[in-house]
Amino acid sequence: MKIQFFGHATVGIWSKDGSSLIVDPYESGSYDGRIAYTPITEHFNYGVSSHAHDDHNAFHAVACEKVVESGLHGPFEIRRVPLMHDEYDGARFGGGVDALVITCDGLTVVHLSDVGHEPSTDKIQAIGVPDILLVPVGGFYTIGAHQALSWTRRLKARCVIPIHFATPACTLPIRSVEPFLELIGEYNRVARGFIDVASVNDLPRALILFPTQMP
C-alpha cells in the first residue's frame, strides 16, 4: 500500500495491484484562496468523502472514475462511523462527519475527517484499531492537538499521521502541526509526502508527511 498526503485532509491510497482511492479532495483556491495547495493531477479509480464541505468533497476538481460511499470497491473496503463536526452536536460547524474506515492489502486506515469532539467508548468500539490513523490536529474547525492525542491513544493506533493543519498553503484560522508533535514526542518526518507500507511492521509510531501539493 502507498499513501500520499496531498495537503489539508486529502490523501491518496494505492493498493499493491495499482488500484487507487482519493479521500476528501480539496479544491485549490477555495475559501477565498486560503486553501492554496496546487491542483491534484493524479487519476483515481475511486473517491470517497467524509462529509459534503467544499474542502473535503471537491470531486469536480480531480480525475476520479467513481465516487463511492461504503462497501467493497476493488481492493478497498470502506465503512463509515458517524461523528460530529463539533462539541455542540454539529450546530457550530454544520452537522455530522463520518470517520472512514478503509481496509486494503490487509491494513486498516482510519480517516477521522473533521471530528470536533472527544472520543466516546461507543465510537472507539465502532471504529476499531487502525494500523494507520489520519487525525486532524489544527483545531478551531476540528479537534486540536490534545484531543488528537486522546483519539490516537484511545484507538490504540499503530501509526498516526496528522492532517488538517496550517501551512504556508493553508491559511485557514487553524494551528500548525507543531503543538501535536510536541505532545506525541517520537516521530518520523517524511519530506517526500508519501509512504509505501508492506506490513504493520514497517510502521513507526508517528509519521509527518510533507504535503506534496505545496506551491
UniProtKB/TrEMBL annotation:
It holds the Pfam family Lactamase_B_3. Keywords: Hydrolase. InterPro entries: RibonucZ/Hydroxyglut_hydro (IPR036866). It comes from the Bacteria. GO terms for molecular function: hydrolase activity. The keyword 4Fe-4S does not apply. This is MBL fold metallo-hydrolase. It comes from Microvenator marinus.
